[in-house]
């Protein structure tokens, strides 16, 4: 996806923060890209997972999930919205199945 002059791929994104009428994209290399596109549009196009009203993360870059916070591989932490936790867990399970080529539940 071309975003304000930059080519952005889902694999290169760590997380995105929505800020009013623009978004701040943080790449896995630490580079930050300011975009005029909304968080919702970027989340849909890049297949990221919304974990809070203002934050979407790359589920493949999550290092740890706790009841009150999600820690990314970069060390960035976000407090997930209680409403978003079920969606996050579904996306993580689906990603596990696709990555491992199985339909089994990853916890069994």
Tell me what you see in this structure.
With 108 residues, the chain is α+β, with helices and mostly antiparallel strands. It has helices spanning 39-46, 85-100; strands spanning 2-3, 6-7, 13-19, 22-27, 32-35, 49-52, 55-57, 62-65, 70-72, 77-78. A hairpin with a 4-residue loop joins strand 8 (62-65) and strand 9 (70-72). The protein is globular and about 35 Å long.
Write the layout of secondary structure elements.
Layout: E1 2-3, E2 6-7, E3 13-19, E4 22-27, E5 32-35, H1 39-46, E6 49-52, E7 55-57, E8 62-65, E9 70-72, E10 77-78, H2 85-100
Antiparallel strand pairs: 1-2, 3-4, 3-7, 4-5, 6-7, 8-9, 9-10
- The CATH superfamily name is LytTr DNA-binding domain
The averaged pLDDT comes out at: 83
Weakly predicted, low-confidence segments: none
At CATH level 3, the topology is OB fold (Dihydrolipoamide Acetyltransferase, E2P)
CATH architecture: Beta Barrel
Shape: globular
Number of domains: 1
CATH class identity: Mainly Beta
**Roughly what percent helix?**
10-25%
Largest sheet: 5 strands, antiparallel
Order of helices and strands: EEEEEHEEEEEH
Give the strand order of the largest sheet, numbering strands 1, 2, ... along the chain.
5-4-3-7-6
Tell me the β content.
Answer: 25-35%
Radius of gyration: 14 Å
How many H/I helical runs? 2
Strand tally, please? 10
Structural class: alpha+beta
Distance between the termini: 37 Å
